[in-house]
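HUMAN: I'm a chemist; might I ask for a sequence paired with its structure tokens?

ASSISTANT:
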Amino acid sequence: MSRRRSQQTLERLRAAARDCRSCDLWRPATQTVFGEGPADSRRMIVGEQAGDQEDRQGHPFVGPSGRLLEKTLAEVGLERDALYVTNVVKHFKFELRGKRRLHQRANAAEINACMQWLDGEMEAIRPRYVLCLGALAAKMVIGSDFRLTRQRGTWIRIGADQWAIATTHPAYVLRLSASANGESARAAFLSDLTRFAGTPDEEA
């Protein structure tokens, strides 16, 4: 698929996702948070679900997790603008506590309803290398048998000429930042992204 056709396909998907009513997550959410980046990118990043700042601004990974991700990508020599970045779940699911919107995990039905958009993005872009952030993203891209605790940081073939690697979500690294495990969590995250910046062939 040419870059122009890929871009046109993504635009059609984005427009359709904007009006998606396949589950009820659209009701309280501000907007759909669709993926962004070059239609011909060889590298794609898949997160778990849109968060509070993503919901407010309409762009993926623009909150604290996004800042950590962008900083770490720069450390390993990757520019975020050269990558296609998206989430499995395109709406923010939350519980209202006073004026605070507390993040809630999407359930299986909500995740399955949203997979049509990620499948469409994968088909339009056809990235060669995919980075999965968090267990949910890894299971949706790599397969339900994937275990982040055992297989993180390992290249796994997911197609004829397509590979994926998984690591923890940057939100997890941030949660541990003030703890005794904070430094090791940050180092492991950096190590995984360093491998993503390379290729499986380089490790053969």
Notes: The mean pLDDT is 96.
